[in-house]
Specification:
- The protein contains 8 helices and 7 strands; from the N terminus they run E-H-E-H-E-H-E-H-E-H-H-E-H-H-E.
- It is of the alpha/beta class.
- The protein has a 7-stranded parallel β-sheet with strand order 3-2-1-4-5-6-7, with helices on both faces.
- Helix 1 packs parallel to helix 2.
């Protein structure tokens, strides 16, 4: 177990499904106090119960729309009311798997869908970071971990709105790290490769995930559990002198 996370209060947006759920269970096993923040409030409540039952860690479910400023602020306020502090924010919520998106090329992208992806995937981390920063600044400590995507490093054809939003997250990570360093707050990005995060994958999705193996040094499909160790490292005291960094976990697809 990674030391230093016991009783830390961590908010995981998009924590009710896929990789976010794996993060929440990992934090629970590390002894953290977990806030599952998700637009799917019913699923968040279910996973919060699972965290409590399987790990013994305290957990709180909060329904949140990360693209809405008031909702993000309420998420932070409820966390403070329940746990009294905020140590870690994981900006994981995104339109990708649980909420379907167009995976076609530029001509096929509807402008409303472009705006919705940017609102959730890019403005969402911005709003959630602003919501927790007053508390972290007052504490003179905190960690913000944004979730990027290997697509922003590869630049594959298709789903250009998703790729652009994740590239924006990586840029925002660097700037925010410089803005909050004086308050002993670290801001990093975790960058997954193509991950089988869908809970009920179709044959098409399975083929797509298997195709991603060909460019990897490690020839297997990436699963959510592959990201948990890196997440706990970035959230723990082991990474206290790392900030503005993008940590790629993709089985050796991108090496930099």
């Amino acid at each position: 177990m990674i030391e230093g996370l016991k009783d830390k209060v961590v908010i995981v947006t998009g924590g009710a499904h896929g990789i976010g759920k794996a993060y929440c269970l990992g934090f629970g096993r590390a002894g953290a106090r977990v806030v599952l923040a998700d637009i799917d409030g019913e699923a968040a409540a279910h996973v919060a119960s699972q965290v409590i039952q399987e790990t013994g860690a305290p957990a709180l479910a909060v329904a949140v729309d990360v693209s809405d400023e008031e909702s993000a602020n309420q998420m932070a306020a409820k966390t403070l009311q329940y746990f009294g502090r905020i140590d870690i924010l994981v900006n994981n919520a995104a339109i990708f798997a649980t909420i379907p998106m167009n995976r076609g090329r530029i001509e096929t992208i509807d402008l409303k869908e472009w705006d919705r992806l940017m609102a959730v995937n890019l403005k969402g981390p911005f709003l959630c970071a602003r919501a927790v920063l007053p508390t972290m600044r007052a504490q003179k400590s905190g960690k913000i971990i944004n979730i990027g995507s290997g697509t922003a490093l590869h630049g594959p054809p298709g789903r250009i709105h998703y790729v652009a939003s994740k590239a924006g997250v990586l840029g925002m990570t660097r700037t925010l790290a410089r803005e909050v360093g004086d308050d002993n707050i670290q801001v990093n990005a975790l960058v997954p490769g193509s991950t089988l995060s869908e809970e009920n994958p179709t044959e098409e999705i399975l083929r797509m995930r298997q195709e991603g193996m060909s460019n990897r040094a490690l020839k297997r499909v990436q699963v959510p559990q592959d990201l948990v160790g890196a997440m706990l490292f970035l959230a723990s005291p082991l990474s206290d002198f790392m900030t503005g960094h993008s940590l790629v976990v993709d089985g050796g697809s991108v090496m930099r």
